[in-house]
Amino acid sequence: MEINASTGLVALFGYPTGHSLSPAMHNAAFRTMGLDLRYLAFDVHPGELRDAVIGARAMGFVGLNVTVPHKETIMPMLNEVRPEAAFIGAVNTVTINERGKLIGHNTDGRGFMKSLEAEGIDAAGKKVLVIGSGGASRAICASLCECAAEVAVYNRTADKAARLVMDLGINFKNAVQIESLNAEAVRGYDMVINATSLGLDDGDPLPIDTGLLRAGQIVGDLIYRSTPLLQKAGGMGLCTFNGMGMLLWQGVLSSEIWTGQMPPVEAMREALLKRFQ
Ligand code: ATR
């Protein structure tokens, strides 16, 4: 479809954005849906985020994706922040309505739950251990608390885990903190999820000693490729999943928010996988 005077634009604001898989994923969706929309990534310097947001509104962009380092700092620049984004303390998706009103959403938590569902994993009634208490952890914990029997958070910096569990406690009774990863504690969980950045870089230590895992556990990683943790857990015969599904489904939900239509999930998945080959 040719670009013309009525082509709409969705923009990604980040710094840097060169590594992002989102343009390929979202343009594949818009193309398949036959929508006159394009998705472009912009490197917005942190000091210029406000100007960029004002520009996006003035130029009538359809919406935004927001990534590091703007996910938190954009919040006071918006007219409204949806509750899930307020809890996480970060926005990844913005809609801009006809009157120029900017609304911040966060699709990470719901995207994670949709990815579990797509993998045939049901978190309902399960005991889940989440390692890490940064932004990604916050997003998935809030969604997991809605259906899991228990969500336990462990973090290197215990204070931050305590803070997350306290915040979750406002709405949920099933969030707990665990202060050490020992065999007795870890054995009690049905699912163990790495939400730390360990595994992103070669040579990173494992987020958890795999000797603590037991048969029957599901092991997940929010990093979107097979990490040493997942390789080891898979080698032990455990069911594993990586963060590719969460990346895909947060994008599916964002696309649905901008366009009002369910996007073609398989076309988006294919576009992501192609970039990974
Ligand atoms: P994200 O948005 O990806 O969640 P983040 O908010 O910076 O990123 O959170 C990173 C998480 O990885 C934190 O839980 C962090 O632990 P601390 O709170 O103790 O910093 C965890 N993390 C990062 N490097 C780590 C390491 N070397 N060992 C253990 N945990 C680590």
Could you name the key traits of this structure?
globular; 277 residues; 37% helix; single chain; 10 helices; 6-stranded mixed beta sheet; alpha/beta; binds 2'-monophosphoadenosine-5'-diphosphate; 6-stranded parallel beta sheet
Describe what you observe in this structure.
This protein has 277 residues and is an alpha/beta fold. The strands form 2 sheets. A 6-stranded mixed sheet has the order 2-1-3-5-6-4, sandwiched between helices. A 6-stranded parallel sheet has the order 9-8-7-10-11-12, sandwiched between helices. Helix content is 37%, strand content 19%. α1 packs across α9 (244-259), α1 packs antiparallel against α10 and α9 (244-259) crosses α10 (265-276). Bound molecules: 2'-monophosphoadenosine-5'-diphosphate.
Secondary structure category: alpha/beta
User: What is the approximate shape?
Assistant: globular
Q: In angstroms, what separates the terminal alpha carbons?
A: 26 Å
List the ions, cofactors and other small molecules found in this model: 2'-monophosphoadenosine-5'-diphosphate
Low-confidence stretches: none
Strand order of the largest sheet: 2-1-3-5-6-4
Binned, the helix content reads 25-40%
Query: What integer value in Å does the Rg equal?
Result: 19 Å
Short précis:
This protein has 277 residues and is α/β, with parallel strands linked by helices.
What is this structure's SSE topology?
Elements: E1 8-14, H1 22-33, E2 37-43, H2 49-58, E3 63-66, E4 80-81, H3 83-88, E5 93-96, E6 102-105, H4 108-118, E7 127-131, H5 135-145, E8 150-154, H6 158-169, E9 175-177, H7 183-187, E10 191-194, E11 218-221, H8 228-235, E12 239-241, H9 244-259, H10 265-276
Parallel strand pairs: 1-2, 1-3, 4-6, 7-8, 7-10, 8-9, 10-11, 11-12
Antiparallel strand pairs: 3-5, 5-6
The structure holds 2'-monophosphoadenosine-5'-diphosphate.
